[in-house]
Amino acid sequence: MTPDELKVLIRTVPDFPSPGILFRDVTTLIGHGAGLAACVGHLSDWARAAGAQAIAGMEARGFIFGAAVAAQLGLGFVPVRKPGKLPVPTLGIDYSLEYGTDRLEIDPSAIKPGMRLVIVDDLIATGGTALATTELLRQAGGQVDHALFVIDLPDLIGAERLRGAGVAVQALMDFPGH
After folding, report:
1. 123 with 151: CB under 8 angstroms?
2. What sign does the dihedral 47-50-53-55 (CA atoms) show?
3. Range of the domain at 70
4. Parallel, antiparallel, or unpaired: how do β-strands 22-25 and 11-14 relate?
5. Catalytic residues
6. For the residues 78-102, what does the mean pLDDT come to?
7. pTM of this prediction exceeds 0.85
8. Residue of 121, 102, 114 whose CA lies nearest to 64
């Protein structure tokens, strides 16, 4: 399936999580077997071309797409977790959200010095989580210069911010607005 055919599988939910927001819901894509396989195939092709040695994905939907890409390529997957979820000493980073802060953590032993990691996630909006993930993986000794997304919301400039941090960004589709 082409990216345009995949785009039709994304459900738009108006006024979620607040009035005026058009939520782009990937669960309809995930629930479509051929669509999910095609989406993972496209992302895998890009990750292979980027020279990925491992795939990193953020909780929660980044786990779905990232682990599938890693499995298809025969690579390891590095889960970027919410705080308190890993049973080993972690490396973490606090980052700003629109209304407050959040934290991400990884098992630093999962990253070998100089390992080329490609980030995979479902959507990039403002880029806060992707930027924090990039910084965290780099602090652990990884090389991060590619991030792949199913959806880009370009009006929220997250991809632009990530490119400013030296990360090439590719998305299968984009939607105007937020």
Report:
1. yes
2. negative
3. 3-174
4. antiparallel
5. 61, 98
6. 92
7. yes
8. 121
Query: What is the rounded average pLDDT of the residues 29-43?
Result: 98
Cβ pair 30, 68 in contact under 8 A: no
For the record, the structure tokens of 12 come out as 């738009």
* Number of domains observed in the structure of the chain: 1
* CATH number reported for the structural domain that contains residue 75 in this entry: 3.40.50.2020
pLDDT at position 178: 67
Per the DSSP assignment, residues forming a β-bridge with 93 are 104
Burial class (CB in 10 A: 0-12, 13-18, 19+), 98: exposed
pLDDT band at 129 (very low <50, low <70, confident <90, very high): very high
For residue range 58-67, list pLDDT tens digits in order.
Answer: 999 999 999 9
Q: DSSP state, 86?
A: -
Q: What is the pLDDT of residue 96?
A: 87
54, 79 Cβ separation under 8 angstroms: no
